[in-house]
């Protein structure tokens, strides 16, 4: 039992989440591609893969972190408290209104069936018909069936909760692991005394609470990205080619979770090239480069393969943003190769003496400019396609609900840094800016602290690009999810470094000043995010949806073929009827209205009857189903939903009502 054991424990605990997630994804993706993603094969492959990566990533860590037992216990306690709190207050989003329900239904389908695409079962409606629609919001038509939008990484993780009978607990478990992961990065880069502070700051931030309570992809992405940063720190401290491979693999698999991971890992590609270029002058560091690059290519390649095979229509829908991103990736690769080839020449160059201060000054000016955007810029978009038009209409509705003049072209992206201020507090943002400026100056001056180069690059690159173009419907707390994978944890990481720096400087002027100054700084970092979160932290949203859908399933005839004749109900419940209830489901095409033409519905009812099945019609209102049989209400739910705030932090929830009426055509 050495005196450095707590540090080794914290170092190991904080990389285990990313390594375990990576191992599970490595096993789960091939099984899903082969159509055999089931509990037994997944356990037989996934658990050993996760264990192998965890063993490789934690062996011979040595003394990477200096920590006390109390600091380790504090980090673990915060992570556990976060998991318990968010499990108790979890959300239940299974009616497809926004992304979480799509993820939940995606996970439920592959947990039960182990394969994609989802069969249309057109034969249950008398065969294909031009008036039948099998896809809908969150789901695309492909040859052979229907596929959910989004990358498959997060559903592969959420499916574990379905197998254990707790489908809404898995996000909270991942949220707790995210807290542990960030604490590990902070312990390595700022010191273990700040790990508990960072853990609390992350755990109480509203976007983390929000995305840890339901099926979002942002929390798994956070685990992989910040777990990768810890693994790189470990590899720099104790070189070994396998550490580079593990770190690159973890980073690359972030693409399997979110396609935005391509952007987030671009600095890792450049950093790997730098390590390769340094082989002559710093062999230990440079030896990590090929391993890091190989792991990154392998993980990213698996991510792109999963997306291409299982989410191709989704990638096609995003082609306008993915193609430029791929071009940027190619450009970074070319520049990295060129820089590596020119390394001997570049090493002889000496940067001008003014560069470090200029870099620090530009860092401060950039953050100041982002903060000042609302006073000098109004970001708008004129609708050019159906997706833009839906966003335009939604923003106008939100503006009316908030008592604002309707203007659906507004995107409110100019407020993006203000969003971060809401959720981590102005003191944390200021401290993070100071830390970034200090680190830029030091790195440009003499290349130290080198272990900060990649974390600063990842956090800086993703934060700036995200804040410039969040590319999300700008109502909150919904838009806050965009800040979760990197921006919020990155700001907290930098803020803790600034706290450590201020503590050291204050210590030169006396112990009392250091003690009181540190306490005040910690309060300033922890209180603002807690104050923002308090209005919504204790109110779960969309509770009761799962039970309501199960009750609805119980009222559908066993051999029903379900026709949705109204838009909203079809969008929300078609996949739930198909997946959860196990009944064939389709929507009837609508022309200029939200309700399908009665003559076409009657014709399709006769086609269903001709198959020997029972035609069932579902819609939102009684009068929409009454023409086809006796109307029965089979779902009536009153719950809470997200507030939709545009220019201030959300501080409450709104009422949500959902109704489904059924007519069984005898």
TrEMBL record:
A Pfam family the protein falls into: PMT_2
Task: Extract the InterPro entries matched here.
Answer: RgtA/B/C-like (IPR038731)
Question: What keywords are assigned to this protein?
Answer: Membrane, Transmembrane, Transmembrane helix
Q: Domain Glycosyltransferase RgtA/B/C/D-like spans what residues?
A: 170-297
UniProt keyword Thylakoid, yes or no = no
Q: What stretches pass through the bilayer?
A: 12-34, 70-89, 131-151, 163-187, 194-210, 240-259, 291-310, 322-347, 354-372, 420-440, 452-470, 482-501, 513-531
| Name recorded for this polypeptide | Glycosyltransferase RgtA/B/C/D-like domain-containing protein
Q: Which organism is it from?
A: Nonomuraea deserti
Q: What is the lineage of its organism?
A: Bacteria, Bacillati, Actinomycetota, Actinomycetes, Streptosporangiales
């Amino acid at each position: 039992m050495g005196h450095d054991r707590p540090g080794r424990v914290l170092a190991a605990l904080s990389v285990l989440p990313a390594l375990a997630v990576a191992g599970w994804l490595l096993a789960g993706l091939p099984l899903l591609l082969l159509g055999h993603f089931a509990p037994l094969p997944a356990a037989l492959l996934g658990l050993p893969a996760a264990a192998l990566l965890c063993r490789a990533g934690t062996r011979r860590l040595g003394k990477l972190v200096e920590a006390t037992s109390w600091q380790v216990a504090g980090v673990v306690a915060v992570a556990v408290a976060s998991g318990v709190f968010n499990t108790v207050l979890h959300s239940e989003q299974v009616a497809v209104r926004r992304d979480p329900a799509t993820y939940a239904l995606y996970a439920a389908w592959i947990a039960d069936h182990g394969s994609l695409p989802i069969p249309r079962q057109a034969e249950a409606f008398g065969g294909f018909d031009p008036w039948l629609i099998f896809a809908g919001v969150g789901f695309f038509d492909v040859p052979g069936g229907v596929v959910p939008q989004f990358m498959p990484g997060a559903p592969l993780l959420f499916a574990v909760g379905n197998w254990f009978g707790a489908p809404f607990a898995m996000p909270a478990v991942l949220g707790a692991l995210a807290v542990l992961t960030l604490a590990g990065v902070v312990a390595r880069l700022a010191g273990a005394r700040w790990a508990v502070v960072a853990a609390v700051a992350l755990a109480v931030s509203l976007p983390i609470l929000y995305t840890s309570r339901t099926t979002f992809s942002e929390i798994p992405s956070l685990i992989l990205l910040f777990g990768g940063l810890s693994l790189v720190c470990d590899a720099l401290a104790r070189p070994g080619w396998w550490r580079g491979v593990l770190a690159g693999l973890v980073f690359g698999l972030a693409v399997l979770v979110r396609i935005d991971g391509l952007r987030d890992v671009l600095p890792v590609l450049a950093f790997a090239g730098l390590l390769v270029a340094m082989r002559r002058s710093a062999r230990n560091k440079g030896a990590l480069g090929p391993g890091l690059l190989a792991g990154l290519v392998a993980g990213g390649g698996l991510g792109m393969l999963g997306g291409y095979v299982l989410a191709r229509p989704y990638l096609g829908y995003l082609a306008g943003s993915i193609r430029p991103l791929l071009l940027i990736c190619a450009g970074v690769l070319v520049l990295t190769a060129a820089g590596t080839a020119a390394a001997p020449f570049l090493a002889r160059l000496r940067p001008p003496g003014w560069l470090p201060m200029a870099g620090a000054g530009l860092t401060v000016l950039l953050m100041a400019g982002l903060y000042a955007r609302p006073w000098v810029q109004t970001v708008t978009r004129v609708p050019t396609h159906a997706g833009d038009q839906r966003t335009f209409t939604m923003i106008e509705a939100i503006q009316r609900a908030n008592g604002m003049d309707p203007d659906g072209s507004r995107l409110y992206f100019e407020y993006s840094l203000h969003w971060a201020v809401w959720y981590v507090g102005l003191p944390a943002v200021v401290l993070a800016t100071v830390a970034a400026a200090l680190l830029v100056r030091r790195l440009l001056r003499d290349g130290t602290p080198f272990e900060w180069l990649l974390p600063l690059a990842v956090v800086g690159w993703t934060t700036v690009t995200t804040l410039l173009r969040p590319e999300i419907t700008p109502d909150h707390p919904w838009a806050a999810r965009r800040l979760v994978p990197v921006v919020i944890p990155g700001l907290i990481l930098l803020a803790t470094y600034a706290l450590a720096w201020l503590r050291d400087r204050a210590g030169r002027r006396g112990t009392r000043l250091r003690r009181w100054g540190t306490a005040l700084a910690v309060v300033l970092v922890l209180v603002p995010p807690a104050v923002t979160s308090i209005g919504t932290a204790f109110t779960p949203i969309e509770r009761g949806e799962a039970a309501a859908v199960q009750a609805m399933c119980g009222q559908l005839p066993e051999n029903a073929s379900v026709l949705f004749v109204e838009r909203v109900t079809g969008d929300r419940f078609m996949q739930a009827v198909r997946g959860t209830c196990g009944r064939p489901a389709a929507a009837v095409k609508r022309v200029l209205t939200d309700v399908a033409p009665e003559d076409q519905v009657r014709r399709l009812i006769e086609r269903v009857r001709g198959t020997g099945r029972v035609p069932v019609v579902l819609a939102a209102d009684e009068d929409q189903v009454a023409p086809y049989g006796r109307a029965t209400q089979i779902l009536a739910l009153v719950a809470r939903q997200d507030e939709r705030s545009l220019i201030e932090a959300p501080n409450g929830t709104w009422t949500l009502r959902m109704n489904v009426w059924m007519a069984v055509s005898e």
